[in-house]
Amino acid sequence: xxxxxxxxEVFAELKTRPIGGWGIAQIGAGTGLAVYAMWVGILQxxxxxxxxxxQVPYIPASKAQVQNVMTLxxxxxxGLVDLGSGDGRIVLEAHQHGFSPAVGYELNPWLVQLARFHxxxxxxxxxxxxxxxxxxxxxLTKCKNITVFLAPSVLSLxxxxxxxxxxxDALVIAGRFPLPDWKPCRIEGQGxxxxxxxxxxxxxxxxxxxxxxxxxxx
Length: 218
Hints:
Helix 2 crosses helix 5. Helices cover 42% and strands 14% of the residues. Helix 4 (89-96) links the parallel strand 1 and strand 2 (102-106). Strands 3-2-1-4-5-7-6 form a 7-stranded mixed β-sheet. It has helices at residues 7-15, 20-39, 63-72, 89-96, 109-121, 152-165, 200-217, and strands at 80-83, 102-106, 128-132, 145-148, 171-175, 186-188, 195-199. It is built from 7 helices and 7 strands, in the order H-H-H-E-H-E-H-E-E-H-E-E-E-H. It has 2 domains: 5-44; 63-209, Rossmann fold. The chain is an alpha/beta fold.
């Protein structure tokens, strides 16, 4: 999805495309975005049971941010998981770069429906998956490519889950904010568009070295 998509352009496109039952459902979801935008400051569906410090505001990734993520994933293959997938643009772009399956996990139901609408518009709704699920409950033990655009307060806790569950050959890409205690193996972009890549194997080796140094010091 382009950042500068105008509503009239979307509706013009819908007039020229066969819609079908799936399309009607996704148009309804897309229309719901307007309601979401009006009420987002008052009601966050799905967030009521989430502690305030773990809530993540919806800020769409820019074109530059998406491109930086894809650059860091260059040469990788297999599936991709986006934790806190928002409107789904990272998952959709990953699919278009050959990652399969490409799956997004998002707790907010409006954003899940919006992501599915964007996938339908792009003609890929049967090839990507968006699931309404708490990222803390997602099993990451078989994930090799993980992307996260989350707030620093969440990333500090997410490190522990990634460390405990991901295989050694996994690569984690963080956009907008870096993982606070991890050392990146690559960095792409500048300013708010920057993205950081982390090798799980290198991260575990770093932790092992730190533990050894700590034991030696004691």
